[in-house]
Specification:
The protein has a single domain, classed as SP0561-like. 60% of the residues lie in helices and 0% in strands. Helix 4 crosses helix 5. 19% of the residues are buried.
């Protein structure tokens, strides 16, 4: 799976639960809140003052290494 800014947090967590730490490191601590299933990563990053590009890159690097 390649992560994009249009994926939701829930999409990413379903692909690999190990990504939870990455979200936590980026200030996104409420991984099970309703927004996690409806907001895109881009929207979530905007709400948390994080860079969506950086988050997506970090997630994709993690997933590439996890294979």
């Amino acid at each position: 799976m390649t992560i994009t800014k249009t994926n939701t947090i829930a999409d990413v967590l379903r692909a690999d639960r190990g990504t939870a730490k990455i979200f936590m490191d980026h200030g996104m601590h409420c991984l099970s809140c309703p927004h996690a299933t409806s907001e895109t990563l881009e929207q979530a990053c905007a709400a948390h003052g994080e860079s969506a590009d950086h988050l997506v890159t970090t997630l994709n690097e993690y997933l590439a290494q996890a294979k």
